[in-house]
Structure formats: C-alpha cells, structure tokens
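Changelog-adjacent note: as of this version, every example in the card shows the full chain rather than a window. The one below runs 234 residues end to end.
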Amino acid sequence: MRDIRNLLVIKWAIFIVALIGLVGGTIFVFTGRMPEEAKVPEEPKIEMRTDIKVVIDPGHGGKDSGTHDGHGVLEKDITLDIGLRMRDFLHKQGIPVIMTRETDEDLSDIDGRGRHLRDLQGRVKIIDQGTIAISIHINYISDPQENGAVVFYAKGSEQGEVVANKVLQALSSVQHLNHDFPVPRSNLYILSKSQIPIVLVEVGFISNAEDKQKLQDPTYLQTIAEALGKAIID
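Full-length structure tokens:
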C-alpha cells in the first residue's frame, strides 16, 4: 500500500511541475534535473589571406544566355553554378574572392547595340580589382564529337601562361582535355584588356552528349570548381 501511495505522490509531483511550466508559457519535460541551455559550438574563424585576391567571372548572364543545347540547358546557368561553388571553396581556404556576378545578370547598363561590349567592359573593371582571375565558359561546336576542356590565356602574358598551365594540369585529372596545352589568344576582350594574370576556361562542350550530361551533374560541377580553385591558388 505504501508503494502505491509513493507512486501516486510522484505522479502528482510530475503533474504539478508540468502545470507550472504550462502556466509560465513553457513546457518542461521532467528528467530529474534542471534543463540546461544547449551550447552551439562556434565555427573556427578563418583568417583571410592578404597576398591574393581571386576574381571569378562566370561568363554571360541576364539577357545573354551564352551557348545552349536548344532544350533549356544554358551556358550562363552552368558557369554561375561553377563560379559560386569555386567562390565557396576558396573562402574556406581563406582566399578573398571578387565575383563579376553572383546572380543571373549581365554587367551592361544599356540595351541594344553595344550592350555586349559594355558588359565586357564592366567585367574587366571588376577583374582589375584582383590579383588573379579566371573566366568560366562552356563551349559549343557543330561537331558533336568534340569534347573536353580548353584553357586560353592572353598572348604574350608570361604570368597568364603560367596560370593557364596550372589550370590545365588541374583539369586533366577530372576532365578530358580538348587541347593538352594552353592556347594563347589576342582577340578575346576579357584576356587582352585585363591588367592582371587571367585565364579563360571552356570547361566542356554542351554540344557533346557526354560533356553535357556531366555539366548537369552537381557532383561533377563541384569537382570542377575545386580543381579550378586549387589551380588558381597553388
């Protein structure tokens, strides 16, 4: 009988504690001890480097979709995806990053004739705020057999060639190379007008079935982004 009475006393005690909690606006679960405030571990603070500032230029954007497959797969979306992944990867390494765009927009302030040039001029203005830059693009050609990555640098730029070789080497471990050497170009505005070492990377061919499939795979895009990031800061 005494055990039954003790049990009833315990039940009433639990009920009273719960009732008090409800009146106070808080529900307490009886655990035999006072509830403790959960401690959220602080994320380690990343010290950003001051000797480098990477500019990432996701090609195209806004009204300029870049190349496409004719079925809704757009260059501007893929380049932005890779660029944002690369930005996040570099931030975790303590590398400051400047993006020419972080949303689906271009950098032109006019419509119609001259729009593309104004966009390129806007990108170069941002690029020159950094110490090294990479412009990300996707290729297209009428021959569906062509595939792989191509890396361009400004003709005559020794520093650009050094960066291009590093990027090419990094890409070779994750993607087939369309050219096994960096290609010098003098007629690409982004390369010829920028005042810092810069490379333009055509990550793959949207006109090639295998490349297009990979370029829609988030895991593959993350791999590409990290490879580019490592090459830039190596």
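Structural remarks: The CA atoms of residues 167 and 231 lie 5 Å apart.
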